[in-house]
Amino acid sequence: MSHRDIVRAWKDPAYRASLSPEARAHMLPHPSGMPEITDNELREAAGATNNLTTAWFCTLYTYIQHRCCPN
């Protein structure tokens, strides 16, 4: 596997999924390593803690459910 293919596999999940198990086994690990972030840290980084709305019931629902108001 060429370096170009390895970098493409790192960047493109669809391409990586299309590789054979043998090709994936021979791939070098990504230089930045595996991400080590918890679900709560990811929610906070995505702004899930900023529940901005003017309707008090939506604010309460969003706070309790950690998502937007139901449809």
Which keywords apply here?
single chain; 2 domains; mainly alpha; elongated; 71 residues; 5 helices
Structure notes:
This protein is mainly alpha-helical. It has two domains: about 1-35, no CATH class; about 35-70, no CATH class. The protein has helices at about 5-10, 15-20, 20-25, 40-45, 55-65. The model has no long low-confidence stretch (mean pLDDT about 75).
Write the layout of secondary structure elements.
Blueprint: H1 3-11, H2 13-18, H3 21-25, H4 39-45, H5 56-65
Summarize the structure.
With 71 residues, the chain is mostly helical. The protein has 5 helices and no strands.
Strand content: under 5%
Low-pLDDT residue spans: none
**What is the ordering of alpha helices and beta strands?**
HHHHH
Helical content, roughly?
40-55%
Mean pLDDT: 77
* Coarse structural class: mainly alpha
Q: Quick one: overall form? A: elongated
Counted by DSSP, the helix tally is 5
Please, how many domains? 2
What would you report as the Rg, rounded to the nearest angstrom? Answer: 20 Å
User: What about the largest sheet?
Assistant: none
Distance between the termini: 48 Å
Number of distinct beta strands: 0
